[in-house]
Amino acid sequence: MLQLRSIITLHVCGYKSETNQAQPFTNKVYSLSFSLLISKKMSSFSTFGLSLFISLLFATIFTIEGKPFQSPPVTVNITNALKDVNNQLTIHCKSGDDDLGVHQLSHLASYAFNFRPNFWGSTLFYCAFDWTGSSHYFNIYQDLRDRAKCNDTLCLWIVGEQGLCMFDYKTNAYDICYTWS
Hints:
This protein has two domains: 67 residues, no CATH class; 106 residues, Immunoglobulins (Immunoglobulin-like, Sandwich). By secondary structure, the protein is mostly beta strands. Strands 8-5-11-12-13 form a five-stranded mixed β-sheet, with no helix packed on it. The chain has a four-stranded antiparallel β-sheet with strand order 7-6-9-10. A two-stranded antiparallel sheet has the order 1-2. The relative contact order is 0.13. The longest helix is centred in the N-terminal third of the chain and has 18 residues.
């Protein structure tokens, strides 16, 4: 049995030498590797069929909604929970790429926005929170901190005078709290 080392991109490549024997090879562009054991008696059609099957398998695993290596969309929902029902909350959220604009929230009103976290896990959205006599900033979404806490797709926040609290899907309560600094 001969060993063929291949690097997966989203398809499998084979290489045969002039003696028609499988030769080990590498491609330094990607780092996900695997090994296949191929019998000398395996026909070209069988090799092609196996390669096609593995290609489709990896394409399915690494593709979401037809786009490779994309995370599912996340929604961040922020609710004004200030005690004074007449106090409007002004929110201005941004990322390194997007300015989501200024939004005014009356008591118990919510503002939500959607995005796709990047493949590297470094997605960050930060917001300014202003109301009568107060002004604060907070990183409303940090991928490594929040993805699992947000149940992968929905982050629920309430904003109060003392800070913000995120909904905890394990306890079904807004008990992941951060005080204003």
